[in-house]
Amino acid sequence: MDDPEIHALLPAIEQQCSSPDTPIVAETLQRLIDDHDIAEDEARYMIAFCLADELERLGATGTAFDLARYETLLKLLPTLPEAR
Predict the structure, then answer these.
(1) Whole-number pLDDT of residue 2
(2) Which residues contact 33 (CB under 8 A, 6 or more apart)?
(3) C-alpha separations of 43 from 1, 38, 64 in Å
(4) 82 is a domain residue
(5) Is residue 83 part of a domain?
């Protein structure tokens, strides 16, 4: 949990948790804490990892942010995505 690039995304995760446009982020956070007994800071980091994965794909392909893919990654947590 020491990747500075992931830590840099934590404010975005905070914003997504409170945004009505991304309710799945807050739902995922709560699910990880409640159902998987994961500490809140670790759960936020895991969500940020998913965001980083999608942003990396966006940069590599030059395509738009794929919200459906991001949501799929969140649903797969606590299993983290493999590097693609």
Answers:
(1) 76
(2) 39, 40, 43
(3) 11, 6, 26
(4) no
(5) no
Q: How many domains does the chain have?
A: 1
End-to-end CA distance of the chain, in Å?
A: 20
**Encoding tokens for residue 65?**
């942010």
d(CA 42, CA 80): 12
The 3-state DSSP class for residue 56 equals helix
Torsional sign, CA 20, 12, 75, 84? positive
- The parent domain of residue 65 ranges over 4-76
Q: Is 84 domain-assigned?
A: no
Q: What pTM value is reported for the model?
A: 0.91
Give per-residue pLDDT as tens, 25-79.
999 999 999 999 999 999 999 999 999 999 999 999 999 999 999 999 999 999 8
